[in-house]
TrEMBL record:
Pathway(s) annotated for this protein in UniProt: Amino-acid biosynthesis; L-methionine biosynthesis via de novo pathway; L-homocysteine from O-succinyl-L-homoserine: step 1/1
Job of this protein: Catalyzes the formation of L-homocysteine from O-succinyl-L-homoserine (OSHS) and hydrogen sulfide.
InterPro entries per record: Cys/Met-Metab_PyrdxlP-dep_enz, Cys_met_metab_PP, O-succ-hSer_sulfhydrylase, PyrdxlP-dep_Trfase, PyrdxlP-dep_Trfase_major, PyrdxlP-dep_Trfase_small
Positions of modified residues (N6-(pyridoxal phosphate)lysine): 207
Name assigned to this protein: O-succinylhomoserine sulfhydrylase
Catalysis: reaction(s): O-succinyl-L-homoserine + hydrogen sulfide = L-homocysteine + succinate
Gene: metZ
Length: 390
């Protein structure tokens, strides 16, 4: 499939390899292993002399279709699908780094990612220095002789801080480190980090790539040398955090509507953000599409639109924040995001509840903060629902 096609077309047509039945929709290959014609062919497949499927922990045709499609959308040479977003981050670090290496990471990243870096990788002598998402000088100053990897999310979860991908890629490359960007909030429909200089893109496919809150999945994207020969695929194939064929099928069908959905999520989120900004009970609204956002200009250079996540600081702290949550009838009280259904979360006691108070304070996650992952319902109905508690 030629790369000259537009993203919306690539999302629908890339990666299809029809079976002998000539099906129109992509086939779902639910099989653990694949059969060989002979002992010689089995040996050739295992030695790598002959390409082809062996076992679904290594490769599977449905997973390959999803990988090829997402690679086309991110403009990446290669995509490796994983069982979840967290296993994508795990596989990336375990594949590329060794004991004694150092990571510089944004302070404003998903709570489980903070935990993985500070409490698990540290046990294997991979240390992480956390720095401001928005100040490239801090990244520069945190670099050590053993720094191998920079890690960030932009926009960040939940405060929608914007990191300057091109500027941080420059700093990373001068120190011979790789820049890894978690592109969960924007997806390639709104932002393509590899084009801005990032080396690797990470996805929690659980979110917008599926888009309907059905399955867990993840992905690692980048060039072939780094992903296939650099150790990431070898880690995944051996350790096994592989994406199931069923989940790959659900996600690849989700990709077909990704661009339409991201435009609608962004339009609805902007409307809700503007409405919240005008509400007297709201102290502050965090949304990159608002002109009041401190990095609105950078966001609009890097992103096609603001995305679907709006966070806001309510006056009255935890009590008032929980009251808003307990008053909704339409929004779902759940921590997931990227669904057609809008979700409402209190980050300080849920997604970021297991990190230390000090880390929460440093990341700006206050007791009055609420995060809405704006879905595809009518924005009027979402506003009416929020108004019950506000
Ligand atoms: C930005 C971000 N990255 C990674 C993850 C982890 O993804 P998963 O739950 O698929 O492991 C999440 C989950 O919420 C997330 O919000």
């Amino acid at each position: 499939m030629t790369k000259e096609l537009e993203l919306e077309t690539l999302a629908i047509h890339t990666g299809i390899e029809r079976s002998q039945f000539n099906e129109h929709s992509e086939a779902l290959y639910l099989t653990s292993s694949f059969v060989f014609d002979s002992a010689a062919q089995a040996a050739a497949r295992f030695s790598g002399e002959e390409p082809g499927n062996i076992y679904s922990r290594f490769t599977n045709p449905t997973v390959s279709t999803m990988q090829t499609r997402l690679a086309a959308l991110e403009d990446a040479e290669v995509c490796i699908a994983t069982a979840s977003g967290m296993s994508a981050i795990l596989s990336c670090v375990m594949g590329l780094l060794s004991a004694g290496d150092h990571i510089v990471a944004s302070r404003s990243i998903f709570g489980s990612t903070v935990n993985l870096f500070s409490n698990i990788f540290s046990r294997f002598n991979i240390e992480t220095t956390f720095v401001s998402a928005t100040d490239p000088m801090e990244w520069q100053q945190a670099v050590k002789s053993n720094t191998r990897l920079f890690f960030l999310e932009t926009p960040s979860n939940p405060l929608t801080e914007i990191s300057d991908i091109a500027a941080l890629a420059d700093i990373a490359h001068k120190t011979k480190a790789w820049l890894v960007v978690d592109n969960c909030f924007c997806t390639p429909a709104l932002q393509q980090p590899l084009k801005l200089g990032a080396d690797i893109v990470i996805h929690s496919a659980t979110k917008y790539l599926d888009g309907q809150g059905r399955v867990l999945g993840g992905a690692i994207l980048g060039n072939k040398d780094l992903l296939m020969d650099g150790g990431i695929f070898a880690f995944l194939r051996t350790a096994g955090p592989t994406l199931s064929a069923f989940n790959a099928w659900v996600i690849l069908k989700g990709l077909e509507t990704l661009s339409l959905r991201m435009q609608a999520h962004s339009a609805h989120a902007l409307e809700i953000a503007q409405w919240l900004e005008a509400h007297p009970g709201v102290a502050r609204v965090y949304y990159p599409g608002l002109s009041s956002h401190p990095q609105h200009t950078l966001a609009m250079q890097q992103q096609k639109a603001g995305g679907g996540i709006v966070s806001f600081e309510i006056m009255g702290g935890r009590d008032k924040a929980w009251h808003v949550i307990d008053s909704v009838q339409l929004l779902s009280i759940t921590a997931n995001l990227g669904d057609t259904k809008s979700t409402l979360t209190h980050p300080a006691s849920t997604t970021h509840g297991r990190i230390s108070q000090q880390a929460r304070d440093a990341a700006g996650i206050t007791e009055g903060l609420l995060r809405i992952a704006v879905g595809l319902e009518s924005p009027e109905d979402i506003k009416a629902d929020l108004l019950r508690g506000l």
